[in-house]
Task: inverse folding
């Protein structure tokens, strides 16, 4: 049987590999491997092409991590630490609104969860250390928050709201990795259903009107805990069955 | 809805922004841009050797450039200048064979043309300077060799290229035996530069890099063929 096709939003970015230094469509393989590990087939969607027709070919979509979302999208001036990727913003905001309109199962990871808030009228905190007075939500620049020696940063608990979709997936609490300096302030049409207990930073959102629209502020694709990816693929299979009926 | 065109990709350690040497699926952006300008919607295909089921949702396939094919695939020992990426070979051969079975339109670029050749039972020259005695097909790192090609009258590639027969090459391997394919384009030194499978709807391999100039003649033709196949 054909595996559900899961689109992953990707970068079009100046990148160095081997002896090359050029603009490439690209995404860390961790996302691809996470989708394949739970029974989906991943394809990358590059942001160069603001159009939404690709959604008709997909069974599910992951809005992946990346740079900051331009605060102009919620009417705020940029913070000095905000580094935007306008090309991805334009493309992904269009894609997300079309995917919500179509009821396509979606998972938002890090930037992807923040996009869920912004695409539905919400807003972000642009620089979390200003708000919570600590740096524990991000690892040192360029380091892997899961790597040895990074344990002082980027790992914390998340408590989950009773009765939410996230609660059925994760239970009452879980420990996550963390690599972000922005966070959801107003979740728009999404509901906040998980928080970091130390500082009440929003860590999980879900959409009450969608079959499956879940956002997580951490990076499950870089861990062995792929419950969120598995739930997306299950929802994609269910969605396809409904469409075929 | 535009036809969906899948583009094969590399898996390599990549460095960008704050990240260093992170294993990534990537392909030069030129390919997606060429597909877009040709009227299609590009998705990038990370290598996956499990199944070619992604083809059920695609209308056409671009086999992108990349490293050398494993010479054992065409019955040779590995030469001293041959650099391979066997995982990509396995995944792309699976995908290509399934695409050919479905008669899906395929545009195969550089390594892609060599893959097409090997899938058709052909064989490659592993290092052209050893065979031809010159470096015109790869003048230097990052430098494309501009040449004028000749095309077989009446072939698909001759029709598509028209009067402008300039090609931009960057390869050190080439087609020695096209297998069941028909050679329809040649460099001035006689090296095959284009192959076609005339038994199928649209299967075209080119040894040069039409994506760099976003050549709408070729990518537009692929998208047109992919559109015709739409039920």
Result:
């Amino acid at each position: 049987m054909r595996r559900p096709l899961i689109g992953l939003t990707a970068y079009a970015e100046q990148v160095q590999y081997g002896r090359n230094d050029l603009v490439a469509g690209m995404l860390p393989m961790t996302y691809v491997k996470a989708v394949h590990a739970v029974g989906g087939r991943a394809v990358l969607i590059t942001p160069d092409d603001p159009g939404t027709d690709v959604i008709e070919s997909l069974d599910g979509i992951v809005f992946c991590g990346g740079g900051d979302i331009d605060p102009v999208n919620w009417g705020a001036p940029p913070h000095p630490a905000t580094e935007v990727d306008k090309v991805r913003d334009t493309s992904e905001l269009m894609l997300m609104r079309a995917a919500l309109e179509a009821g396509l199962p979606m998972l938002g990871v890090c930037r992807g969860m923040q996009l869920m808030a912004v695409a539905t009228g919400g807003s972000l905190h642009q620089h979390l250390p200003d708000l919570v007075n600590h740096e524990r939500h991000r690892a040192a620049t360029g380091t892997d928050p899961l790597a040895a020696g990074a344990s002082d940063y980027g790992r914390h608990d998340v408590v989950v709201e009773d009765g939410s979709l996230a609660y059925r997936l994760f239970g009452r609490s879980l420990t996550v990795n963390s690599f972000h300096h922005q966070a959801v302030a107003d979740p728009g049409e999404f509901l906040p259903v998980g928080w970091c207990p130390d500082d009440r930073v929003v860590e999980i959102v879900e959409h009450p009107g969608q079959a499956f629209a879940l956002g997580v502020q951490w990076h499950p694709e870089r861990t062995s805990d792929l419950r969120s990816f598995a739930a997306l693929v299950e929802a994609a299979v269910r969605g396809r069955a409904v469409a075929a009926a | 809805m535009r036809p969906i065109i899948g583009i094969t990709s590399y898996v390599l350690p990549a460095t960008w922004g704050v990240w260093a040497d992170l294993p990534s699926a990537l392909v030069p952006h030129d390919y997606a841009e060429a597909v877009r300008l040709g009227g299609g919607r590009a998705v990038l295909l990370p290598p996956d050797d499990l199944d070619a089921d992604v083809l059920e949702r695609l209308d056409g396939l671009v086999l992108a450039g990349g490293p050398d094919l494993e010479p054992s695939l065409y019955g040779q020992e590995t030469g001293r200048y041959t650099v391979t990426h066997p995982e990509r070979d396995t995944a792309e051969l699976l995908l290509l064979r399934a695409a050919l079975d479905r008669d899906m339109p395929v545009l195969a670029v550089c390594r892609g043309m060599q893959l097409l050749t090997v899938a058709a039972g052909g064989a490659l020259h592993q290092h052209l300077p050893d065979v031809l005695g010159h470096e015109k097909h790869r003048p230097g790192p990052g430098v494309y060799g501009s040449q004028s090609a000749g095309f077989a009258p009446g072939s698909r590639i001759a029709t598509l290229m028209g009067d402008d027969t300039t090609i931009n090459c960057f390869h050190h391997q080439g087609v020695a035996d096209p297998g069941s394919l028909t050679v329809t384009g040649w460099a001035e030194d006689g090296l095959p530069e284009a192959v076609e499978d005339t038994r199928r709807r649209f299967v075209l391999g080119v040894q040069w890099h039409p994506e760099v100039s976003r050549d709408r003649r070729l990518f537009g033709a692929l998208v047109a063929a992919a559109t015709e196949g739409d039920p």
